[in-house]
Amino acid sequence: MNISSSKNISESVTWVGKWTFVLAAAGSAVGLGNIWGFSYKVGEAGGSAFVLIYLGCILVVGLPIMMAEIMIGRYSQHSPVSAMKKAAIDSGKSGYWQSVGWTGLFSGVLILSFYSVLAGICINYIGIAAMPNTDISSFEQYAQVTGSPSTLFFWHSIFIGMNIAIIASGVIAGIERMVRLLMPILFILMIVMLINAMINGDFNAGLAYLFTPDFSKVNPETFLSAMGQAFFSLSLGMGSIMCYGSYMRKSEDIFKTSLTVAGLDTLIAILAGLAIFPMIFAYGMEPQQGTGLVFKSLLTIFIEMPLGNIIGPAFFMLLSIAALSSAISLLEPSVAYFEENNIFSRSAAAIILGLIIWFVGIGSILSLNSWENEYFLGERNFMDSIIYLTFNILMPLGGMLVAIFAGWFFKPRLAMEELSAANVNIFKTWRFFIKFVSPVLVASVFIYQLLG
Ligand code: PFF
């Protein structure tokens, strides 16, 4: 593949709006991971101690790696595979670094396959929360949804269809237009949910749960869980942010935008916690309920509370919008690759990849019912195997390799030029973290997991 002939800088796409990169990257970062994932992990890990460790992971590992991804993407103005190759070759290193990009594309496809099934359930719940079947409990309702392959299949197909349509419309007409519409709606819905928790929930109990430190609950698992969550939540290690970075204008400040995106992502995760836990406590539910927390407990609450048939659908709409703006960032890197190398047109690439992802997703659908006890990797069913493979192996591996590349192999002069708007101290601090701190921390978590 000849990078210079496939797409040159002058013909590369750039976001039109000044804030689009921040909106698009925040759209990618803010997703089911923040609202559904963060809340259930905080619940499992016992609250505040997890939140503090999570914040530490975001600052020490997430932020430097996010800056590295944006830097490499923007420097090379290509999709992740070609971006890694160009950045490596221009630094006098082997073009094999492109394998990091390939790992990213592969994990993006795998993640989207199960993400879409979960997002489909969220869309389905908009209607369920508007008109709940009060003859059965929320737990039975959830079992009914997940036990019906045809229902899951229907909503999974709708969700993948929306992704294909947005990505096929292009970076500007599809992604940019969508995030400019979706992100403000998401923010407003989040505030509505928060006000609701203040009025109808036990807000003090929620605050105490999220912010009173209880380090007796901390163990190595807490660090694993917090680091994995930080990676997933910031969309790192699979090329999404690198790809969006390749559309970023040269005049934008990478440090400030990364800080803004990481800040928004964390803010939304905490707001989601503040919207959810006060309700859980006010209605006497258990915070430790795993993945079913938002579907089972919250639905019960929406059924019981005043105006629940309006607040409930609004909440699931919030989840669905967050999921959609994240999902498009999982599809974009591979579509961009096929497009820039003239292998397929953008629309054809979106359709072909979308169909592959849709097909793989069927495995996750069946894992919720007839394949529940069919094991693939160890004693994990299909969906759990894909989650394990992406969360525990591919994402940390991708993030670690990006950090190692950016810290040890990418020419410091090129990195410095990309960070030019920032001052020398920021560059030096970034370089220290990306060279020594981030890769070592990710590697230790990674190795611990492999041994465990
Ligand atoms: N960050 C998204 C979330 O928190 O739900 C998930 C995600 C999107 C992960 C895009 C990775 C990615 F590339």
Question: Helices and strands in order, then pairings?
Answer:
Layout: H1 3-6, H2 20-29, H3 32-45, H4 48-76, H5 80-90, H6 98-130, H7 138-146, H8 149-168, H9 171-200, H10 203-211, H11 220-233, H12 240-245, H13 254-282, H14 293-304, H15 308-340, H16 346-367, H17 382-409, H18 412-418, H19 424-451
The protein binds 4-fluoro-L-phenylalanine.
Characterise this structure.
By secondary structure, the chain is mainly α. It has a single domain (about 5-450), classed as Orthogonal Bundle (Hydantoin permease), CATH 1.10.4160.10. It is built from 19 helices and no strands. Helix 3 (about 30-45) packs across helix 13 (about 255-280). The protein starts with a helix and ends with a helix. Residues about 1-10 have low confidence and may be disordered. 4-fluoro-L-phenylalanine binds near residues 29, 232, 238, 240 and 330.
